[in-house]
Amino acid sequence: MTQTHDAAPMPIPTGNGLLDLMTELDHVLRAEEALLTQSRHQVQHKDLLAQKQQLVVRYTQTIRALAQEPERLREMSDSQRNALRQIGQRLEETTTRNMKLLKREISTSDFLLRTVVDTLRQQQPRAPGSGGYGGQSPAHIDSHDTTQPMLVRKKI
After folding, report:
1. Number of CB atoms found within 10 A of residue 146's CB
2. What is the pTM of this model?
3. Could you read off the pLDDT tens digit of each residue along the chain, which spans 156 residues?
4. I need a surface site. Which of 21, 57, 58, 156 has the fewest CB within 10 A?
5. What distances in angstroms separate CA 112 from CA 59, 64, 100, 107, one per listed residue?
């Protein structure tokens, strides 16, 4: 989701609008967390990921805009600021848990992929004297054979 220079600037949600944005982002992260812990994330995670990305962009833009206009935060009521602090803390906790779960999923996937690749390599039969040159040693490869990589075609 990229914003062009011609697009009107996004209005900065404050007060209840910011609270709603943060609450929605926290809800999506918690839903993603539930999918990750239940290992049902293949199909459903795709939709949540798109929603999460949109919310993160809006949230980031809002926080940056508020940093440029801190008086907008001061205009909020004490109850709104307290609610924002609470959802901010909850959002931070949810984000931390979510990040740990995603890292675990990535590590598990990487381990599984490495295991499959290693197993396949071990099961491939090797021809005698093969060193990755189709069963031929580099000395037996024709220097005019253009199907071989350049380094192999050069005579030493």
Report:
1. 7
2. 0.56
3. 444 444 555 666 666 788 888 889 889 888 888 877 776 556 567 778 888 899 999 999 998 988 898 888 888 889 998 999 999 999 999 999 988 988 888 888 888 888 888 888 888 876 665 555 555 555 554 445 454 444 444 444
4. 156
5. 35, 40, 18, 9
